[in-house]
Each structure stands twice: as C-alpha cells, then as structure tokens.
C-alpha cells in the first residue's frame, strides 16, 4: 500500500500547535500559532480527503461514509478561529483557550475518522474534558457540568471496555448517554450552563458536531432489536417541540442560539432512531448540513457580541446599517437551519419528512410544526437584531476581512456542500446500507 499520511499529519500539527502555544509567552505569538496550526491541519485533512478519492490512504483508514468528515471538521475549526476577534487573544480579561481548541480539533479528527465502536466510546469519554478544563480555568462552578457528565463518562468507559454486557443493558446505556450528551430533554440544563459560562468558542465546537450520532448509527441494529430506539425517539420528539417553543420566548441572543441547537440536534436524533436506510441517510446528511449552518449562525452571534456585548432581544438594535454582511449571513444560516430550497439541508429535510409522515403521522406533524416555530423565531430574532431606527455606528463595528472570508466559506458550504464528491445522498445511502445498519456491533 502507498501510505498517504496527511490525516495523521493533520492531527500531529494540532498537537504540536497546542504544545507550542502552551509554552509561548507572547499573546500575539499564541494567536499566530493557533490560527496557522488550524489552517495547516485543515489543509492536510483536505489532502487526506483528496487522497482517499484517488485511492490513497494512511495508517488511519477511511471509508466512503466518513471520508469527508475530517476535512469538514478541520475546515469549520479553522473558520471559527479565523474570525475570532483579536481582542479575544490579546488583552482579554480571561485567557483564550488556544491549546484546548487545538486539542479539541485533534479529538474531532479522531472521532470523525474512527470506525471502531470501542474507540468511539473512549473518544466521547475524553471529549468533555476540554470544556471542563476551560470552566476550571475561568473560575466557574463545575457542579452542574459534573452532575450530568460523570454518568456519561462512566457509561462510555463501561461500553468501551466491557464486551459481555446484555443487549438490553447496552441499549439502555447508549440511550442514556445520548440523552445527556446531546441535551435531549430532560438532560439539557448543562448545555445552557455551558454556553453561558464556558468560552463560547469551546462550547460551540463541543455541541454542534453532534458526535454521538455516530454511536447511534453504529449500534442502530442493537437499538432496534432491543426497542430502545422507540423510547429514544419519543424523548427526541418531545425535545424538538419543547425546544422549538423555547426559541420563541428567549430574551437573550446566546440562549436563543443554544435552544436552536438543541431543537435541531433532537431532530437529527429522531431521524437516526429509525431502522430504515432512507431515513438514516436523511438524518446523517442533515446532521452534516446543520453542523455547517449552526457554526455560521454562531459566528454571527459571536461577532455581534464582540462588538456590542451580550445582546438582549427585548428591543430592536438596528445593526444592519453598520454590519450588513452579518445580517445577510444570519439570514443565509437561518435558511440552512430550516432546509430552505437551494440549501444543502433541503433534500435531507424533505427525505426525513417523507419517511416519517407515512409511518408516524403524529411525529411528522410535530416536526413540521416545530420547523414552523423555528422559522418564525429566526425571523423574529433577525428583526430584533438588524431592524429598527437608523443609528450612526463607528467604523470599528464594520466586518473585518477575516470575518468576511469565514462567512463566505460558510455560505458556500450551505449552498454547495451537497455537490462535493462523496457527500451526496446516494453515496451516504449506499454506505449506510453496506455497513452501519445491517449487523449489530
């Protein structure tokens, strides 16, 4: 075999960048090392994707199913770091978690490229350590975080190392881990606390990848045979409706974004709970599309907060005059979140609805109604943020070139992600039928 070690190099670059940024003294050097480490890691991950496409692999072997994921993950990490305001690195009250973000990027690459069940459980047990360390660094209370995450650590480690558990117990443990880790009602309070108290960048890149979806896909047959997927789907459908309703009444922009993430994540969980190949295809494709749209939405939220502080939704702010690009990006990402025609999520939403409605009209009605609530809330928040009386803003509020580049990358992915090789519906459907849904793991 001709080894093509770009994926391994991508992970090594992040680890070296994390080590060097920890040792660097100058904040300007830390910023330089962090952004460029993420950039070169993204280049290597994309090279590994191209190498797979031309039949070259490294020691970590990829399949058609997960080949695009490391490249997508690294690109989104780089985009988030690229548009991080300079003031977050230099002169901020609390230190920016550069090394933690590079470690998080390494873990994300490992999760996206892993095909082994036990390895995935182990990586999902390690992943929450990143926001935990950041909370401790910032001097925040960690009790709420630990109350929810200690059970998931125990479950993940048990499933990673125990090979002789009964199928029913395994299914129950997986569902409990997914409910807590994905923020399915009632295990969601820690996520709201995390986005409020943790670094928003760390929280964003911890929540939006929806990594536990890969566990459900790999154990779909087991969850179906033990009927656990049925109970998990009821938790998911109640969460979709509950969180979609909460997006309408939020008076804090950051809380609105959190509940939007929770509602859309629950929708993906509902789709993955099925045993039908088409519905699984729709749910997994939807997960990748929403990952991009939610990252773009979070970039807009953080850009506005960097300029104006924490924003209330009690009054109109009229930000469009000063930052029209942020207004356009907010609308485009909102369209991507609800599967507007032309966005990469459109086909996935349509397939998901077409598969769910005939088998369960009640579930289909709740999904359609929840989508309508989310659409209304997105428009309401847009009007609150970008409409209102004209205000004369200084040039310091204008969108910088780095932010412009990051937002255009996100907009391209929202409208063009479906046209990249190995990411279309047919390829995903073929590989789900071939690998993940036929045999218990």
Write a concise synopsis of the structure shown.
72% of the residues lie in helices and 0% in strands.
Number of strands: 0
Could you report the average pLDDT, rounded to the nearest whole number?
86
Which sequence of SSEs, written as H and E, runs from N to C?
A: HHHHHHHHHHHHHHHHHHHHH
| Rg calculated over all Cα atoms | 21 Å
Structural class: mainly alpha
Main beta sheet = none
Number of discrete domains: 2
State the share of residues found in helices, binned by percent: over 70%
Shape: globular
Strand % is: under 5%
End-to-end distance: 28 Å
Residue stretches low in confidence (pLDDT < 50, at least 5 long) are none
How many helices? The count is 21
Structural commentary:
With 441 residues, the chain is mainly α. It contains 21 helices and no strands. It folds into two domains: 1-114; 116-436, no CATH class. It is globular, with a radius of gyration of 21 Å. Helix 1 runs antiparallel to helix 5 (98-113) and helix 6 packs antiparallel against helix 12.
Topology:
Blueprint: H1 6-23, H2 27-53, H3 68-82, H4 86-89, H5 98-113, H6 117-126, H7 129-137, H8 143-161, H9 167-181, H10 189-197, H11 200-207, H12 212-218, H13 220-225, H14 228-249, H15 253-272, H16 277-308, H17 324-337, H18 346-359, H19 361-386, H20 401-416, H21 425-436
Helix pairs in contact: 1-2, 1-5, 2-3, 2-5, 3-5, 3-20, 5-7, 6-8, 6-12, 8-9, 9-12, 9-14, 10-11, 10-15, 14-15, 14-19, 15-16, 16-17, 16-18, 16-20, 16-21, 17-19, 17-20, 18-19
């Amino acid at each position: 075999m001709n080894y093509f070690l770009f994926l391994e190099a991508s992970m090594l670059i992040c680890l070296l960048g994390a080590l060097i940024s920890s040792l660097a003294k100058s904040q300007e050097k830390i910023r330089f090392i962090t952004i460029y480490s993420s950039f070169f890691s993204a280049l290597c991950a994309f090279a590994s994707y191209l190498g797979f496409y031309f039949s070259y692999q490294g020691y970590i072997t990829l399949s058609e199913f997960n080949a695009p994921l490391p490249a997508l993950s690294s690109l989104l990490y780089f985009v988030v770091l690229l548009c991080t305001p300079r003031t977050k690195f230099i002169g901020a009250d609390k230190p920016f978690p550069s090394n933690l973000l590079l470690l998080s990027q390494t873990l994300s690459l490992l999760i996206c490229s892993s095909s082994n069940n036990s390895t995935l459980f182990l990586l999902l047990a390690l992943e929450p350590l990143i926001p935990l360390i950041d909370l401790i660094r910032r001097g925040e209370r960690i009790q709420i975080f630990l109350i929810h995450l200690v059970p998931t650590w125990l479950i993940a480690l048990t499933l990673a190392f125990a090979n002789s558990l009964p199928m029913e117990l395994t299914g129950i443990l997986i569902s409990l881990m997914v409910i807590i880790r994905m923020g399915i009602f009632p295990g969601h309070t820690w996520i709201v606390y995390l986005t409020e108290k943790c670094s928003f960048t760390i929280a964003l890149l911890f929540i939006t990848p929806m990594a536990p979806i890969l566990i459900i896909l790999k154990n779909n047959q087991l969850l179906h045979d033990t009927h656990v997927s049925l109970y998990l789907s009821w938790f998911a459908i109640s969460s979709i409706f509950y969180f979609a309703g909460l997006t309408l009444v939020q008076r804090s922009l950051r809380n609105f974004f959190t509940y939007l993430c929770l509602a859309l994540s629950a929708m993906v969980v509902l789709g993955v709970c099925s045993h039908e190949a088409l519905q699984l295809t729709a749910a997994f494709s939807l997960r990748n599309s929403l990952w991009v749209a939610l990252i773009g939405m979070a970039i807009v939220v953080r850009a506005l907060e960097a300029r104006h502080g924490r924003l209330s939704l009690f009054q109109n702010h009229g930000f469009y005059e000063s930052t029209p690009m942020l207004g356009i990006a907010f609308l485009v990402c909102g369209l991507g979140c609800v599967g507007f025609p032309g966005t990469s999520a459109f086909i996935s939403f349509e397939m998901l609805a077409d598969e769910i409605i005939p088998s369960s009209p009640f579930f289909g009605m709740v999904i359609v109604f929840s989508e309508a609530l989310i659409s209304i809330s997105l428009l309401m928040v847009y009007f609150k943020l970008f409409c209102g009386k004209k205000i004369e803003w200084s040039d310091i509020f204008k969108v910088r070139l780095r932010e412009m580049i990051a937002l255009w990358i996100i907009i391209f992915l929202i409208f063009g992600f479906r046209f990249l090789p190995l990411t279309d519906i047919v390829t995903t459907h073929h590989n789900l039928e071939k690998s993940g849904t036929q045999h218990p793991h």
